[in-house]
Amino acid sequence: MDLTQHRFSGWTVVVTGAGSGIGHATARRLLMEGARVVAVDLLPERLAALADEVGDALASGDLVTVAGDVSVEATVAQAVEAAGDRIDGLANIAGIMDGFLPAAELDDATWERVLAVNLTAMMRFTRAALGPMLRAGKGAIVNVSSEAGMRASAAGTAYTTSKHAVNGFTRSTAFFYTPKGIRCNAVAPGAVATNIEAPFRSEWAQQRLGPFMQATIPGVAQPDQLAAAITWLLSDDASDVSGAILPVDGGWAAV
Ligand SMILES: NC(=O)c1ccc[n+]([C@@H]2O[C@H](COP(=O)([O-])OP(=O)(O)OC[C@H]3O[C@@H](n4cnc5c(N)ncnc54)[C@H](O)[C@@H]3O)[C@@H](O)[C@H]2O)c1
């Protein structure tokens, strides 16, 4: 590899949830490293703020924004159209929490929304990106899982279920498509300082989870630390890594 080159020069990378937190940091890092980024987010004002940042510091890349709900098929189609004839990388980052609701208190709307945004959207974006990736015989997909994909004591039941499923989706995609040149991996963050909304909507969950969280959660990470891991997995630096669920959690998974 020529280490004088930007890792993502000539690449087109679709990033969901690019308006805030981990997605925002990942989009910035990709732009700094030369990518053309298709940034997708529900909130147009956040995408506008990202576009405003694309000044000299991020000048080596190129930004296109798509405002829409990732769980709606039309948004996927818009992102693919914006990408044009190639998608070299896909970072499925958009996600929402679940109010820490345990099963007995779980309402249908929370369950359906959390699974739609955290899981079904990831499947649809992946399905769409695999078309151009298979034609090129090369591609990299990185999904954002969570510590809640590995344990039950980090979130409510809908979120925990969705992130366990993200791990299965990641491994299955890696199994089927690594032989065709497409790698698929996930990062599993611990606590990260972002705008994700995570109020407790259950008293029992607060009682049950509180002591575990206080005893086990390491310090809160910065979004740039996640972006570093996500871009590594996207890049050719990770050319022999596929099907991995990489904890990026300050050691929480080891507890
Ligand atoms: N922050 C943490 O502690 C933490 C820990 C583990 C995993 N994660 C995961 O990291 C990912 C990113 O979260 P974050 O913490 O950066 O949150 P964030 O809220 O700061 O950023 C998420 C972005 O996704 C967008 N988004 C949400 N729903 C959307 C939808 N339906 N369509 C389009 N865009 C949508 C939001 O507008 C927001 O800009 C999520 O998948 C989350 O589950 C976060």
Detailed description of the structure:
The structure is a single chain. It is built from 7 helices and 7 strands, in the order E-H-E-H-E-H-E-H-E-H-E-H-H-E. The chain is α/β, with parallel strands linked by helices and 255 residues long. It has one domain: NAD(P)-binding Rossmann-like Domain (Rossmann fold, 3-Layer(aba) Sandwich). Helix 1 crosses helix 7, helix 3 runs parallel beside helix 4 and helix 4 runs parallel beside helix 5. The radius of gyration is 18 Å and the shape is globular. Bound molecules: nicotinamide-adenine-dinucleotide.
Written as H for each helix and E for each strand, in order along the chain, the element string is: EHEHEHEHEHEHHE
**Count of extended strands:** 7
CATH class: Alpha Beta
Largest sheet: 7 strands, parallel
Beta-strand fraction estimate: 15-25%
The rough form would be described as globular
Secondary-structure blueprint of this entry?
Layout (H helix, E strand, L loop, with lengths): L11 E5 L4 H12 L3 E6 L2 H10 L8 E6 L5 H11 L5 E4 L15 H29 L2 E6 L12 H21 L4 E8 L13 H14 L6 H12 L10 E4 L7
The structure holds nicotinamide-adenine-dinucleotide (NAD).
Nicotinamide-adenine-dinucleotide binds next to α1.
